[in-house]
Amino acid sequence: MNEEEVRQVVSDALERVAEEDADLLEYDVNERSITHKLAVYLREEVDEEWDVDVEYNRVGEDDVSKAIPMEYLKSKISDDVDPEDLDAKTVYPDVIVHKRGEHYENLLVIETKKSGSSGEYDREKLTAYVEELEYDFGVFVTLSVGGQGEDSPYDCDWYPFEE
Questions:
Q1: Are 115 and 142 in contact (CB under 8 A)?
Q2: Which of 36, 49, 92, 139 is the most exposed place for a label (fewest CB within 10 A)?
Q3: What is the pLDDT of residue 67?
Q4: Lowest mean pLDDT among 45-54, 85-94, 119-128
Q5: Quick one: pLDDT at residue 86?
């Protein structure tokens, strides 16, 4: 899939979340509930050759992970990120479009954050996924929750991010 097709697929899937699952955004439910629905709609939009997964942590049968070590991320983020949020040993992408079992058949990585939350840490994670795990495309999605998104229920910021 080319960039235009990927952007359209993401837009279409996010529109379905906004239309068919508006209550998830309105009630400000857990981010995983929203990203699950996003993944369901992405699965319906992408070619059959691709798999869509939420918080995926493996490459085939080997003990190889599609995750980024936390130590790597700690070296990349600024001092204003709360250290209490950095206790995990590895982090996993919110949603990916890839080929299971193929370490470098990675089409798209999506990191999401609900409105009202800082996204710096998630942008750093997304940058690491694209650069270290060779995803073709990456997008940071801000989801407007609790009635905060009067103009749009979501906002997309595509990698590479502008300063």
A1: yes
A2: 49
A3: 62
A4: 85-94
A5: 47
